[in-house]
Amino acid sequence: MAPAAFGQPGPVSSLAPGTSAISGVLVDARSKQPISGCRVGLVEIQVRIPRNALAITDADGRYVFDGIAGGEYAVTTMCESYLPSVCYRGPGTEPPRCDTISVVTDQRKTNIDLTLTQGAKARGRVVDSQGRPFSGATVRLGMPVSDTPPVMHRPTETNRDGSFEMSNLAAGEWRLEVELPAAAGSPRPPTVFFPGVLAESEAGSIELVAGETLDNIVVVAPRMSDNRLTVRVVTAEQNLTHLDVSFVRAEPLSSRRVTVDAGGAGTIEGVAPGRYFLTARGWRDDRVWTAADVVEFAGDAQEVLLYLQPAARLSGRIVSDKGPAPSMEGARVGATWTHHGVAINPLAYDEAPVAPDGTFRLDGLFASCQLQLIGFDPAFEILSISQGRADVTAAGVALTADTEANVVVVVRRR
Q1: pTM beyond 0.70
Q2: C-alpha distances in angstroms, 171 versus 89, 149, 177, 339?
Q3: What is the pLDDT of residue 314?
Q4: In this predicted structure, what is the pLDDT of residue 133?
Q5: What gap in Å lies between CA 292 and CA 244, rounded to an integer?
Q6: Are strands 265-269 and 228-234 parallel, antiparallel or unpaired?
Q7: Are strands 301-307 and 228-234 parallel, antiparallel or unpaired?
Q8: Which of 289, 272, 277 is nearest to 231 (CA)?
């Protein structure tokens, strides 16, 4: 007898045929009423290639997998308006543990009953401070506020009138997050938390109840479109062949270049309040000039002056704590700008090759930097970094304009 399932015509199974069966009833967790038309999946586990079958519950909520081989199985369920379940729990089993169903030849288990919890719905609008709708904004549930287990939910987008609807949500108290669309030429806005704040510590929450709809949620996005940050690069050096200005937000990480005019001025619009990092590099012949600043942007219009100075340089040597140093073939040293010991943009770094004798040199640097080894022998790791008599492994290498710092990087076998 081939494996079969109620309400599902045609081949629905890749399970090996046999003389056993698994069946039960699917019910609503609150009403205890049977649920029809739901998909129940049976997956054979503890095999090299998992095999599965599909059943659809009938009008009485019943499902059956008949004519299956003895083995160990897991059960999954999927039903419209209910939270999906990938876990079967027998009587007395508490979360997060799941149970499997074992059958032997000729065994028929008829009491594998399953329960599903109805999902909650959330409806609302995203508007600006003037009440105008935000279309194309992404709305999602964030982290739970209380003891609600984290659950992945599908985000949605707001319509032309700023409205949104999310369904099949887990009950509980949740943060609500909104990603606003970026205006042309503006940096990507940070996450907005319900009811309309940028700091998660100031965020409110929404309370969802299984099977019910929470209506009239309104997220008022803070005003950002009129905010502008102007950067002016000041230098006594004339005839720079190239000027590169960058604008970085460390959390969440966002980086972009700032277009500057012939006078070294550039404006970034649509800037959200927060902390930003600005850098500038200028080149002329073989000389590099740099500037960097940390900006606490409060909103409206703000101007920052970046004073170019001759760049700092860094030279060093890589040595082993014991025995000969590893091969330096293909190895490079990367330097990442840090603020209070934390890398501002770990994805962006200056780098230079390491010579066969372990020496290296980096130019065009500014402020403090954290060093990393790139393309290095993976059997080794950094043990310490010394600058003079100071251990700067954690704090980073301190740099001063128009001077050269010297470091020793000690590596060891992992």
Answers
A1: no
A2: 19, 10, 17, 41
A3: 95
A4: 94
A5: 12
A6: antiparallel
A7: parallel
A8: 277
CA 259/CA 237 separation, integer angstroms: 19
Domain 120-220 falls in which CATH fold?
Immunoglobulin-like (2.60.40)
**345-363 confidence digits (pLDDT tens):** 888 889 999 999 999 999 9
Q: d(Cα 98, Cα 84) in Å, to the nearest integer?
A: 14
Tokens 């012949």 belong to residue? 285
Predicted confidence (pLDDT) per residue in 283-298, tens digit: 888 889 999 999 999 8
Q: Which of 410, 401, 320 is nearest to 363 (CA)?
A: 401
Terminal alpha carbon distance of the chain: 58
- The structural architecture, per CATH, of the domain 228-310 is Sandwich (2.60)
Residue 2, pLDDT > 50, answer no
CA distance 191 to 76: 34
- Return the domain boundaries, the chain: 17-116, 120-220, 228-310, 312-413
